[in-house]
């Protein structure tokens, strides 16, 4: 996966259709989430598409998230969010301003409100998870 900064540089020069394609490709690059992990307990509430997020803790104390969606564009948005927090310590995740990291992508103006309405819920779930692991 590219860094958010590298992705932003590419994203800025694309037209709307190519931005959609970039998000879809980014979503395809997500690590596969095993079907048994896609349960009601891992479902992110408030998303127009089904979104599942499953945290794992690594031996070095970092958090690694598995995530998936049944919608291609939504998977790309998930991948963007994960680029900001993946494989970081709970303290780093809590200190990360994910909304600011995603701001250059201007998702609210690039995508329909249905596509972006679940982003705050996903970010909140990731922060809540980091908070549980930080204590």
UniProtKB/TrEMBL annotation:
Annotated ranges, domain Fe-S metabolism associated: 14-128
InterPro entries: Fe-S_metab-assoc_dom
One Pfam family here: SufE
Family the entry assigns: Belongs to the SufE family.
PANTHER family per UniProt: SUFE-LIKE PROTEIN 2, CHLOROPLASTIC, SULFUR ACCEPTOR PROTEIN CSDE
Protein name per Swiss-Prot or TrEMBL: Fe-S metabolism protein SufE
């Amino acid at each position: 996966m590219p860094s958010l900064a590298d992705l932003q540089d590419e994203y800025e020069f694309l037209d709307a259709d190519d931005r959609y394609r970039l998000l879809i490709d980014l979503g395809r690059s997500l690590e596969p989430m095993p079907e048994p992990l896609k349960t009601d307990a891992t479902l992110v509430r408030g998303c127009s598409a089904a979104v599942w997020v499953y945290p794992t803790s690594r031996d070095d104390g970092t958090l690694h998230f598995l995530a998936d969606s049944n919608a291609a564009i939504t998977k790309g948005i998930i991948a963007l969010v994960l680029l900001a927090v993946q494989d970081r310590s709970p303290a780093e995740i809590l200190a990360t301003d994910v909304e600011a990291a995603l701001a250059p992508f201007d998702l609210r103006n690039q995508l329909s409100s249905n596509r972006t309405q679940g982003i705050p819920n996903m970010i909140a779930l990731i922060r809540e998870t980091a908070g549980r692991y930080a204590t």
